[in-house]
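Consider the following assembly input.
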Amino acid sequence: MAERFDVAIVGAGPGASMAAYLLAKGGLEVVVFERGDYPGAKAMFGGVLYTTVLSKFFPEFPQENCVERHVVEKRFSMLAKDDELALSFKFLGFEPPYYNHSFTALRAVLDRYLARKAQEAGAVIVTQTVVDSVLMRDGRVTGVRARREGGEVEANVVIAADGANSLIAQSAGLRGELPLSVILGIKEVLSLPRPVIEDRFSLEGDEGAAYEYLGGEAVRGAMGAGFLYTNRDTISIGLGITLDSLKKLGAQPDELLNEFKMHPVIRRLLRGTTPQEYSAHLIPEMTPQDLPRFVGDGILVIGGAAGLVNANPLFHEGTNMAMASGVLAAQTILEAQKKGDYSAAALEPYAARLRESFAWQDYARYQRLTRMAETHPQFFAKYPYEFAAMARKLFSVIPTDDGMQVPKRKLELAVADHALAELGLMSFGMDLLDAAKAAVI
Amino acid sequence: MNAEGKDREQSPAPADLGNYLGPPKLISRDDKLATLAIKVHEGSPHLKIVDQKVCLQCLEKPCTVTCPVENYKVEENGHTTIFWSSCIECGVCRIICPYHNISWRYPTGGFGVTYRYG
């Protein structure tokens, strides 16, 4: 006789733990399967966590050591060979305890924190256990099959929360293979003492910085971006690059990361650091056509498994979207429980709520920009270099033979020439228009 | 500091900061792996090449350049070897293989990579 729960959740990430917490509080018997030694043991993100959902349910989180630093600077930059052109936004006026709801974090810490909350609410967390597939009867999901003796567990509802690769969504027939538009994220966590981090990045106390590097020398001009985030006494540095462009580039990802770290601009930020951990993970960036169905008979798909990310370097969101989807999944299941109906039709409100939420709206809006970028590689391969070159021309101070200086008018003309000849003012204008169309329509 | 700014060069960095001015440490693929706790499930590879003949026909071999821990190597006889015991379970090879020729599953629970930071 198989064990039986009301809800079986595959994966113990932040979305799963939000769902487990709310379901357990609602009186349901919940089991959560985690394949690692502990929740977060197999997880990785950039990462900045947006804490709207977290603060709603766990308002005390800033005092409970689950996050690193609150972000007070977002900096966007383009790297050329020796030059950097950057735009920084500093926001020091947000109030504690949540500031601007943007905190740097580490998943091995955050996921454990959230799973403990779910456990305290009554959910059963089973670690070191892989779930390979769902159990199906008459076309509906009736439970999960864990890779262990007596591993068949029956449940009224299964939540696929097994992240980007989601073999569970696939095994339930809700999705095909992942497309090459998905992104490989690689990261190193580097140690650096707190006072050095705070001094180097102009931070006071628990303030943090989030630096993003769009295309250009960060990723050899490929479709991708670099990032650098400050944690308490470590720095997270890494790259995200689509599998498609990684394949075309033909470069080892770990070598790309070494190149990025040694870029003259980045190198100076990383002085005295020592690598503590290397990691790699997929970011499930894909078109709406490639997304899984969010509900089936007896199953819901949440978080990265559902492809809910906004991998755009402007925002780099995903974990908060996963947590939101976990909340919405739990609400829907609690209603379904009252009616005793777990069919796809009964679970459909989850998909509807998701589509009304910021998670879907932001995904839908920004994935169009990503699609546009796929057909406009010049945003990564050309413009970062040309803009840096124009800045270099404008700001070069050039002596003349008579001990005087080249007048600014000449420099401006050189920039204008560059804009016409190298940048291609017309085609750049058209590309900007395409970007605006993708973002607005 | 005098007017000519001479002291600037000589003024030492604060002692504790001075220890952190050297270039960042770059580490090789092997050293990157050494930062990780990987529990190997001996004798139980979770990754396998389905059919080596398919690899022989594959010209691009994207598995060999996209794996973030460089676990795919082509032998002299053209066969592909997977160093599965140093896999960090990202899933790239599963998607990148143009012929879906890699049988891919997660290591059994409790085995494989464990991140301390993530």
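Chain A has a mean pLDDT of 96. Ask yourself how this observation constrains the way the partners meet.
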